Predict the structure.
Amino acid sequence: MPEISRRTFVRGVAAAPTLGLIAERLPAAAAVPEKRETASTADPVELRWLEGKPAAGVGNTWGVPWPTGALAPDQAFTLAAADGTTVPVQTWPLAYWPDGTLKWSAHAIPADAPLSEAYTLTRGTPSPGKTPPVLVVETKQQVTVNTGVIKVVVEKRGSQLISAITRDGVEIARDLRLISLRQRKIEDHRAESEQLTSTITKVRVEQRGPVRAVIRIDGTHQRRGRSWLPFSVRLYLYSGAEHVRMVHTFILDTDGSSEFIAGLGVRVGVPMRDALHDRHVRLSGDGDGLLREAVRGITGLRRDPGANVRAAQIAGEKLPDPATWDQRVTTRLELIPAWGDYTLSQASSEGFTIKKRTKPGYGWITADAGQRAQGFGYVGGASGGLGFGMRDFWQRHPSQLDIRNAATDQAEATIWMWSPEAGPMDTRFYHDGMGQDTYPKQLQGLEITYEDYEPGFGTPYGIARTTELTFWALPATPPAAELAALARTVATPPQLVAPPEHLASSGAFGGLFAPVDRSTPARVKIEDRLDFLFDYYRKQREQRHWYGFWNYGDIMHTPDVDRHVWRYDVGGYAWDNSELSPDLWLWFAYLRSGRADIFRFAEAMTRHTGEVDVYHLGKWAGLGTRHGVLHWADSAKQQRISTAVYRRVYYYLTADERCGDLMRELVDSDQTFLALDPLRKIRTEPYTPDPHALSIGLGTDWSGLAAAWLTEWERRGPKAATAQKKLLATMRTIARMPNGFVTGSGLYDIDTGEFAVAAKTVSVSHLSAMFGQVEICAELIGLVDVPGFEQAWLQYCRLFNATKAEQAAETGADFGNLILKQGHSRLSAYAAVRLNDAALAARAWKEFTGTDGYTDASPWQTTRREGPEVLNPVDEASWVDTNTTALYGLAAIQNLALIGDRLSS
């Protein structure tokens, strides 16, 4: 029987004083299993592009895990392309094992790195490269970054985030700033909005190269003393790059009912130096579709200026001297309209329109329309121009691209993350509560609509959204094929990844996954079903149109078998908000398969759930919201949604700083239990939150706290010492409880991080372990030795699906009538491996295949439904719901990794 390795720190842990020495250890005489045998720790790692070699080089950042004890904390690396060409690489640590060795490393390559199908990462001295390193110069007023191709000036005060972008001494862009439109009334269409502009409060240089520079800018939108929508913007610049990548985050600091966002965007000025007929506008449409226009077009005229002239304008080239044209055109150029304003508006996921006009005060004409625009535009001319784009443009409708004043000395380009043509963003609560002003009435409502309603709790105050944008400083109008490649890069940024085999052999994320294996019929059956479930949700997102500014990235909770829709309007059955860990299902599905479509689906979910479903300001900061019709509607504000365990995989695979911020925000989230009691509606005894005796559940509450503490500790963050102290103290005191995790909850001291010793009680919920506790406990047991903690967890794992008699015999009482037994089969599998118990492994497979959840008796197929039965044709599997899918997926993946050899063929 295989055994999961216990990755104990080496005895020489004093070499890592910042991590501290753990007091609890196994007795010296105890047998400690050796760490997992892996491929040689010196073996190189072959990296590949997630979607294949990209069409354009823009630089890249990625993460790689390493086995415990394999690499020094300051290990250097070298990178080579498939043909052996060395590639400059910048390296920095993301996380450390408790023995101080490197656990996760991050790497970055330049924008002008040779594009190869694959690269090999090896220990060694990095190549300096041919391009000069990115240069960062900081003064009291500015930060200037030179990539070797462009120079970007970042301001530390005022409204301009970027005051200038130059290339070869030519100013391509200036005065990049954030704008928002604020409107007080939402029903009155005559109400006017006011424009607020970014005001910078803080600028920090987070990385200075040599390959990658990162500048963080914080501030708010302001006008006439009113400040709202705090923002955090990161600018990413790579050596050899002609672009700036921007990651823009704003927080909604309004209650959602008295003032509304009527527009949210980024605006930048573009100097226009060329003759009107040498100025060009490009807007991307579906796929590689591209609108190609000149500000003053000379094609299609009654008089032909010349075929070569027309061809040059369409190609975006500088036209020949007008003296060489047909003079009937040359002498009358001023009679040809100059189209200075363009708008591409993506009102829904199913349609965009493009319109243009000559200038303000004159009418718009429709240029064209399409379905899904890539979200990329260009304005400029033969002497240079600006490309600009927004990722997930159509997915996050209503979005918009504006070009204004292209016929003047300075054009303006605006990327609207919320289109002003869509009207004010409606963030109001969707009903009046129907008199549910007391807890008993609210609980009755929960019984009917599955919505945990409470007046004042359905507020969006404190939620956030992060958007990725890119700006290119181009020396001239590029050919159409190059612009199409840039549009594809905006829509799907290239991503380097390590293969599943390396991810698994490193012991990353508790060792709970293994590469896809179809070597037996039984394995094939499970793999086919895993594929079916993911493909179903991917198609449902498309067919049900799970898109939109606040919605994209989430999935629905439960279908309505009568209406043949998902229950989008029924209380707690609508948006899923991470209920029962679909985030983890998707990420573990990617880790073992390397599938790009799964990665992108999980990435969108991580961006959504970490921002929209969690509060980042106010009294509930650090808590997430349970599933509902609106992402913020439900009154259950809990750790189980905000938990860092849902962000860890994406962070470590990509080194994404914003995702790192989200996890760091949660280190002190034990404070939230002073502000809000999760059990306030069902307590029967008096309870007042006491900082030295906080009632905290040992399941969904503690696992969320533990995930944040572990992440901060292994990242060696600014609060690592506190995180380590509280993590180990809770582990130690849970272990001392007579019934361990079976106790259900404990009284927690916020200062010491300890739980008070509890009486021998039994309180087990089917939800306790289903929000990341399985995964976080596996990681902790593999990291540190705290006597009794593993025993307490294994007891819970063994007994959850045991008989009532077995439960009562060991703990003093049975656990009642529990559900989600299929999802808990992975707990049985984990205990079987740790205890080397073949009978328990066999029981785990029976629980997986023959209890609740999806079984052989499930249909495992869809039914095609068309009008008039449904609004749009859909492929329906009414027997599929997200709770069961997430738990089936995780149980299948983890059982195969842990006890796959016990699966009959």
Remarks:
- Residues 1-40 have pLDDT under 50 and may be disordered.
